[in-house]
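Regression test case RT-17, inverse folding.

Input:
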């Protein structure tokens, strides 16, 4: 962990309730898109992702966040910028590493459908993290539909 990440982790720990740190929590991971208009400069280009057209554009800034869910309210614990060439399992790994300093025991991890893939499922099953993720059904028969 570099010096900047260490500083960020200390800041996150300082603003969170002691009840959240070192406790059992439900956690959610979400990926969000912010519409981008225009031509990106070389510094922005790696962070512009393509997606289906929405709000008059198919280019977006993407970020992923981890939320602790407590009493039906969510508290943001970490946010990362997502690069256009980054795969879902890499995003999940980075976010879980970012909150590892909090010593949370995850009772259930809720993930949106954008992360549905075999590598993500394997990554979460390896350490035994219980998770809920919608299944994307492809095709007319067999597979998940069956």
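Golden output:
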């Amino acid at each position: 962990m570099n010096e900047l990440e260490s500083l960020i982790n200390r800041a996150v720990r300082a603003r969170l309730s002691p009840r959240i740190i070192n406790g059992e929590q439900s956690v959610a991971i979400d990926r969000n898109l912010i519409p981008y208009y225009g031509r990106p400069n070389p510094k922005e280009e790696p962070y512009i992702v393509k997606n289906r057209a929405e709000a008059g554009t198919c280019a977006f800034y993407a970020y992923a966040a981890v939320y602790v869910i407590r009493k039906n309210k969510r508290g943001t614990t970490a946010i990362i910028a997502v690069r256009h060439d980054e795969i879902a399992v890499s995003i999940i790994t980075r976010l879980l590493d970012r909150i590892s300093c909090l010593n949370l025991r995850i009772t259930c991890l809720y993930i949106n459908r954008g992360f549905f893939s075999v590598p993500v499922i394997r990554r979460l099953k390896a350490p035994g993290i219980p998770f809920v993720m919608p299944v994307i059904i492809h095709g007319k028969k067999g597979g998940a539909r069956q």
